[in-house]
Amino acid sequence: MSEDPRLVRALVACYPAGWRRRYGDEYAQHLRDLRIHRRPALIIDSLRGAVRAHGGVLMDGNSPMTVLVWAAGLFTVAGIGFAKLAEDFTGARGSYTVLVVASAVALLALIVAAVPSAVALVRRHDAGAWKYLAVPIVGALLWYGVLRVALTISDGHGVHSAPNVAGFLFIAVTGVGVVAATAWAAATVVRRAPGKSTARLRPAASIAVAGGMAVATIAALVWGLRVRSGTPAVFHGEYGILATPFVPSWIAVVVALGAATVLAGLGARRQLTAAS
Amino acid sequence: MSDDLGRWAEPGFLVLASLADGAKHGYAVTADIAEQAGVTLGPGTLYAVLARLEERGLIEGLPAEGRRRPYRLTAAGAAELSAQAKRMQHLAALSLLRLGPASA
Q1: DSSP A238
Q2: How many CB atoms lie within 10 A of CB A145?
Q3: Nearest alpha-carbon partner for B53 in B71, B29, B33
Q4: In sequence order, what are the beta bridge partners of B68?
Q5: Is A155 exposed, middle or buried (0-12, 13-18, 19+ CB in 10 A)?
Q6: Average per-residue pLDDT in chain B?
Q7: Could you tell me the CATH number of the domain that includes residue B76?
């Protein structure tokens, strides 16, 4: 325990890979110099530093595309939640259509913003980066497998029965995990192959992403209000996700869409700052 | 500096002040700040500050000596430290003046 190599290695390993490449060796020595194993408060400080370093990667002003990618991940999860909430309603179709169109605009704009990275990836022949493209494919296959298992488990059981709730949570948690893993893989590829954008392409595309998400958020809000005025029994009933009360499900979806919009707005602002 | 470094402003100032009399590696910076200012900078805090200061060109890493890498002030870092110290000096003088003789 005098040299505590495992503790030092573990603490250094908590930091992002890029950070470790730059500071890892000297930081490990610094931890040894501090005799970190005898100082719990410094261990906590190191862990907090690692969390901040990961946050820095996510919110790094030099990588606004990374912020956009994570915003898109959150927006996707919220959008799936909205689709689940709205699947049984035929009212408020106008708001629903606006939401779908705005989401499509945001997605297309994100693809446009990612084009320089895709071109750079093809040109650089970076074999290490290509493996990340397998993440969404493997993730989708995994999620489909989980879906089949969950459907088998919940088959014939009531909506609020333990097998059905467990199956739903199994599907939802796996789905969120797959989306998060896909966003992480995309963010990693974008960092490895940032690409050279024209002065206006990425800023314009980023604004379109944030704008599309903002319109979709407003449409989801309006959709719920129209459900309230058109079918109050539904609005005040248990027509939310998994037959829970409608209002909390609706609010959760709108808040998640709004959070994704704010994140995308931050990314767009940083993209504009980087371009100016 | 406070605008650029946000919550790292105070630790950033301490690190710049520590490096003002010559290059130091991480542990020497920590020990110097603890001795001179009575503040213990944890390793996570120190390296967050070093990374931020280096990113802004206020300090630079020198070639590693074994596993330890010394850092030193850049010209921009010295100018930033000087400006910040003058501002603090002005604020300290103003505070003492307004408090009057009772503070002496």
Answers
A1: S
A2: 11
A3: B71
A4: B65
A5: exposed
A6: 87
A7: 1.10.10.10
Q: Is B3 on the interface with A (CB under 8 A)?
A: no
Q: What's the whole-model pTM score?
A: 0.60
Residues of A near B (Cβ–Cβ under 8 Å) read: 19, 22-23, 25-31, 33-34, 36, 41-42, 44-50, 52-53
Instruction: Supply B57's token pair.
Output: 């060109």
The set of residues, in sequence order, having a beta carbon less than 8 Å from that of A138 and lying 6+ positions away, is none
Task: Assign B3 a pLDDT band (cuts: 50, 70, 90).
Answer: very low
| Reported ipTM | 0.85
* Beta carbons within 8 Å of B62's beta carbon, 6+ residues apart: B23, B69, B70, B71, B72
**Would you state the structure tokens that stand for residue A85, as one six-digit string?**
């909430």
**What tokens were used for A17?**
């890979």
Closest CA to A219 of A41, A68, A95: A95
CB contact B92 to A (< 8 Å): no
Q: Is-contact A33 B29, C-beta < 8 A? A: no
Q: What angle do CA A199, A201, A207 make, to 5 degrees?
A: 110
Q: What is the number of structural domains in chain B?
A: 1
Range of the domain at B21: 2-103
Average pLDDT, chain A: 85
Asked if B73 reaches chain A (Cβ–Cβ under 8 Å), the answer is no
Q: A97-115 pLDDT, tens per residue? A: 999 999 999 999 999 988 8
> Which residue type occupies A228?
R
Q: Any chain A CB within 8 A of the CB of B64? A: yes
CB B72 within 8 A of CB B19: yes
Which pairing describes strands B71-73 and B59-61: parallel, antiparallel, or unpaired? Answer: antiparallel
Which residues of chain A make contact with B25, given a CB cutoff of 8 A?
26, 30
Q: Do A45 and B47 touch (CB under 8 A)?
A: no
Are A36 and B42 in contact (CB < 8 Å)?
no
**In terms of Cα–Cα distance, which of B43, B77, B98 is closest to A50?**
B43
